[in-house]
Design brief:
CATH architecture of the largest domain: 3-Layer(aba) Sandwich
Distance between the termini: 46 Å
CATH superfamily of the largest domain: P-loop containing nucleotide triphosphate hydrolases
Number of strands: 27
Helix content: 25-40%
Bound molecules: adenosine-5'-diphosphate, zinc ion
Largest sheet: 7 strands, parallel
Shape: globular
Radius of gyration: 27 Å
Strand order of the largest sheet: 8-9-7-10-11-6-12
Strand content: 15-25%
Structural class: alpha/beta
């Protein structure tokens, strides 16, 4: 069938498709799902064909320019999935499709127009970068063998395989402490799916932070696996995508966007560390890859394995209510005990030392002992920089970013004050900008200061720091880990970059400098985040016969999330947290949608927020939707824009998004940008 007209959606916040005519030369090749270039205003944009027809009511119709690549096409299942994303997460269909397709594919022909000299030089650079990329996982041993599953793993595998065999969509929640054999269950499930001719996706939170996991999958599946990670350059990304599209690679491992890998015959999606916030995309469409994975699996009659030592409250609640199937792996494979955790009450420490110490006496003594015995130490603090705020001792003035309502962090390396939101930086002033006194005091604690204090206290130790400041150069991350692995380092200091997945047998001591950092954030998930992070960090210690110990320093040692982390007790934490969530009507008992209004004039932002609230109120009553706010956003000014938020909650997010359209259309005020975030994280 040859058609004359095509309906096209584009990567803009416009819901309706646009109709174009199909030039004679493209009629043979154009299909639903074709990626095309077409004129839009005075520009040429990439569009996706979502409909074909013979009739068109429009008089002046423009033709499509070209098809980007005749061999590539968004298949019908992917169109259905992206349609769902656009509805659920409140974006346009074009924006959702665009998120599912690698950027380099969209540029199409324009990327090829380069002068020969230039492209030669670029090719040189590209090769260099590619070599570094290949090195990315070099410090890991390459051999991996199929293990005989133990009793618990066998039960899990049987349960999972029954569903794969029967091609019934199911979601399994695999709950097991680190070292309980979850990854082995993923590997064997994937292997068996492969035997049935079914393909698999493994999602990991951040691929550069989980190199050891990735290496195990590569070692087991060799050429059948494609790795999609954020540092992949355009050309490599496109070749991996083609390998997947053609069926040459039947297993894909990658971060968030790998959920869109164009695999055929999908049988299984694994979401490792399913509770991780990094599965949530911060830009439009603001999807959660875990939830998209479940939807994709449902459309493909595939199964999902959500794995975690600390499942999200949402997933564990769903499992307890029979919506997901709960599989527990309660013990470590080698029956090695989890490390002993000591909590140091820093309030007592402060009274004793008559100042605010960075290292408690206990932590100091254990570090000295372990490095003397040539064991290794990890020190964790989830804050970068040296001092996190500076104020004047005379007038109290606090130095803040002019464009964001946050304090500037002092970075000793660069001798600069830096905004962690917009990267604004300046030389630290000598005198108070407000009252000219020369009593500026540096407060707060970041990884840089921990590093400098560690050098002072343990002069004989070799120490490295790993955070986004220390690793923004390509390859730096890998270098530090290699050095640590080869035991050239005694102490590794880092942010949450070092909390995940690392498996270094010589690490016998983990020190958590401040267990409370995340607790004081204005976020209903702060207790959950604290528990997850502490549990994860603690898991870095005691991974061999050398044993292990964790020391957590805290100013709120009685808090249930810290107490539960001490005893590695997920169930107790869950029971306490779920009853609070119920009482306060928070997820998983409701769904939330957050609206953020931004603008340069505070008065206008506030007025628009108030207006929007009034419009929403009219619609919300009948639908049982609760409106909270407007209130200033937690960061009330960012990059020069004032920010106000409104929260909506209800039993389903569909109830909320269904009333949004009308209210937002009525609410168009100039100079105000509104973002919608469904199930914010
Ligand atoms: P998790 O993913 O829960 O942290 P892993 O699957 O990585 O656990 O297993 C932890 C360690 O135990 C790994 O070194 C793995 O090779 C080993 N292991 C897992 N399952 C078995 C098994 N059935 N027999 C022997 N060793 C196993
Ligand atoms: Zn700023």
């Amino acid at each position: 069938m040859v058609y004359k007209f095509a309906d096209i959606v584009i990567n803009r916040p416009i819901e309706r498709p646009f109709t174009y005519s199909i030039p004679e030369s493209l009629k043979e090749d154009i299909k639903i799902g074709s990626i095309v270039e077409a004129p839009f205003g005075n520009k040429v944009v990439t569009g996706y064909v979502v409909g074909l027809s013979d009739k068109c009511g429009i008089e002046k119709i423009k033709p499509i320019n070209s098809i980007v690549d005749k061999t590539l096409c968004v298949d019908s299942k992917m169109l259905e999935l992206t349609k769902w994303i656009s509805t659920y997460y409140y974006s346009s269909w074009g924006e959702a499709i665009s998120a599912a397709i690698p950027g380099v594919l969209k540029k199409g022909a324009s990327g090829k127009r380069q002068s020969p000299a230039l492209s030669k030089e670029r090719a040189g650079q590209r090769k260099e970068k590619r070599d570094e990329e290949e090195k990315e996982f070099e410090f890991i041993d390459g051999s991996d063998k199929h293990l005989t599953p133990n009793e618990k793993q066998k039960l899990a595998l049987d349960c999972i395989m029954d569903s794969i065999n029967a091609r019934i969509h199911r979601v399994f929640l695999l709950h097991g402490v680190t070292g309980s054999g979850k990854t082995e269950v993923y590997l064997q499930s994937i292997a068996r799916a492969l035997e049935l001719g079914l393909s698999s996706i493994i999602l990991v939170p951040e691929i550069s932070l989980t190199p050891q996991t990735v290496a195990r999958f590569k070692a087991r599946f060799g050429d059948k696996i494609a790795v999609l990670h954020s540092r992949l350059l355009g050309s490599k990304r496109i070749s991996e995508w083609r390998r997947i599209n053609s069926g040459a690679a039947q297993i894909v491992i990658g971060a968030r966007s790998a959920v869109f890998a164009p695999l055929k015959n999908l049988g299984l999606i694994v979401v490792d560390e399913e509770h991780e916030a990094s599965y949530k995309q911060e830009d439009v469409p603001r999807y959660n890859a875990r939830d998209v994975a479940i939807k994709r699996a449902e459309l493909s009659k595939a199964i999902v394995i959500l794995g975690s030592a600390t499942p999200s409250l949402e997933s564990f609640y769903a499992a307890k209510n029979g919506k997901y199937i709960l599989i527990e792996l309660p013990e470590r494979v080698d029956s090695r005990l989890l490390p002993a955790v000591d909590i140091v009450d820093m309030r007592e420490e402060m009274t004793r030392a008559k100042k605010i110490p960075i290292f408690s006496q206990k932590l100091r003594e254990w570090i000295e002992k372990d490095i003397a015995e040539k064991k290794q130490v990890i020190l964790f603090l989830n804050r970068r920089g040296f001092s996190t705020f500076i104020n004047c001792r005379r007038c109290g003035y606090v130095i803040k970013c002019k464009r964001c309502s946050v304090t500037l962090t002092y970075h000793f390396d660069k001798k600069k004050l830096v905004c962690h939101h917009c990267n604004f930086n300046m030389a630290p002033p000598e005198i108070c900008p407000e009252c000219n006194a020369s009593y500026l005091k540096y407060w707060g604690l970041g990884t840089e200061k921990v590093e400098s204090e560690a050098h002072r206290l343990f002069p004989q130790a070799s120490i490295a720091r790993m955070d986004t400041d220390a690793t923004h150069k390509r390859g730096a991350h890998n270098k530090i880990l290699s050095k640590f692995k080869d035991a050239h380092l005694d102490i590794l200091i880092g942010t949450q970059m070092i909390a995940k997945g690392l498996d270094f047998p010589k690490v016998t001591l983990v020190g958590v400098i401040s267990a409370d950092t995340a607790l004081n954030l204005p976020d209903f998930r702060s207790a959950e985040r604290t528990f997850n992070l502490l549990t994860q960090v603690a898991g870095r210690a005691g991974r061999s016969d050398l044993g292990g110990r964790v020391i957590m320093q805290s100013y709120t040692p009685q808090h249930y999330s810290i107490q539960a982390a001490k005893t590695h007790d997920y169930n107790t934490f869950y029971d306490k947290e779920i009853s609070l969530r119920k009482e306060l009507y928070l997820p998983p008992f409701c769904h939330m949608v957050s609206l953020t209004l931004r603008g340069r004039k505070e008065e206008r932002v506030f007025k628009a927020s108030d207006n929007l609230k009034n419009n929403l109120e009219k619609e919300s009553k009948a639908k049982n939707i609760e409106i909270l706010g407007p209130a200033p956003a937690p960061i009330s000014k960012m990059k020069g824009m004032y920010r106000w938020s409104i929260f909506l909650r209800s039993e389903t997010s569909e109830a909320i998004t269904s009333i949004l359209k009308k209210a937002l259309n009525k609410n168009k005020s100039s100079g105000i940008i509104i973002t919608v975030d469904v199930d914010p994280s």
